[in-house]
Structure formats: structure tokens, C-alpha cells
Amino acid sequence: MILFEHVNKIYSNGFHALNDINLSINQGEFVAIIGLSGAGKSTLIRTINRMHDISSGKLLVNNIDVNTLKGKKLRNFRRKIGMIFQSFNLITRTTVIKNVLSANVPDLPLWRSILGIFPKKDWISALEALDKVGILNKAYSRVDQLSGGQQQRVALARTLAQNPKIILADEPVASLDPITAKQVMSDFKRINRDMNITVLINIHHVELALQYADRVIGIKNGNIIFDGSCDTVTKEVLNEIYGEKLEEEP
Description:
With 250 residues, the protein is of the alpha/beta class. The chain is 35% helix and 24% strand. The chain is built from nine helices and ten strands. The longest helix is centred in the C-terminal third of the chain and has 18 residues.
């Protein structure tokens, strides 16, 4: 479970990104976070794996107080939380399989990581992860020869190779065309359903959020102003979240 208790985040420039957030997310949920740019969506998900520290309150992940973690304990904690970015964050001049294998570098002895020698179990895990996202046939292709959608699937496979309990995705389909975006969202949904991995997606496209997520959280000016199932998201709710920009933003 992920539990926010009166969480605030104030950046060094004085910007109040999160305001008294109280929120609980159960294991296995698929949650979409929607709102205007600058509303606090990215900040919210990035506090979960301590990419951003909270300013006050308490944040628990599986009963672990995230803000107390340091050093090796923090690194081990992050290993169970996958992170997917809009920009893919891949090494484009090498193969797909090597990108997926890179997820296991932190667990290798120094000499293995320097030489790039991975044990057999890591190769098997990497190939299985590629199979789960439907691009096993691209394992030995260079990443820069793939489409944007295929590259995002490589990023997802790399995350799966970590064997995560939680996947955080920050605008994972924002740079993809509509058809490819739906394919990638289907991958997230299948992984969520079949592997019981909690998925939190910060997403710009409301229609995709409503189609694939189980639950929607609406954020405005650092405040949660809606939290409910997709079938309870009405036009009035969207107007409250997006205001006059409703037609532009989703």
C-alpha cells in the first residue's frame, strides 16, 4: 500500500507543489493522475520513490517510511519501484537486450558491471520481460532502429526485469501517436492485471485514463480535487479539474 498523510511539497523557490495530500493506493490498483501542466502530477508520483523529498507529512510505501531511507536501504527500496519516463531514457546505440539487462547492473559485482558480464538468470529474466511486452523478436536490434512505441516497450521491459511491486509512469505516451499510445497503455493494463503490479500513471490524455485505469485522481494547484472510479468522472468533474482549458488539455 502507498499512503500519503498530510504530505506537502514546497520547492526551494517557494512553489507549493503539493498541499496537504491524503491518499491511499492499494497493491494491484491501476491509477491515472490527471490535471493541467504544473498541477503537481509529476511531483506526486516522484515523491513515492524519493526522486523528490516531501517537505512535511508522512509517506509510507508497504509500511516503510520513505523519508527515513538513506544509502543502501534507499537503493534497495527503489529497486522494487519501476519508473517510466516520456523520453524513454534508453541507450540508443546498443541493443534492446543490453538495455533491459542494464536494470540488473546495481545487483552485479563491480567486475561484472565493468565487463558487462551478466549471469544466465539475468538473460532469462530480460528475454521474458521482452516477451511480456511483445517485442522479443527485437531483442538483438539496436534501439535507435525502433519506433517510439517499441522504445517505450523496451523501457517497460527494463522495468519489469527489476521485478517491481510498483510502476510509476510520468507521461509515458505523451510523445506517441494515438494508435501506439493505446498499444502501450494496453501493455500497462495487462501487466497490472496479470502480475498484480500497482501502476500509477501521470497522463495528459483524459480519454486514455478513462479507458484503461481503474481509478482516477484529479489534481489542481497541488490539491486533490477528485478521487474515484472512472465511471464517476463526469463532464462537471473535468471542468473542475481543467476549467476553461478543458478543450485544450486532454
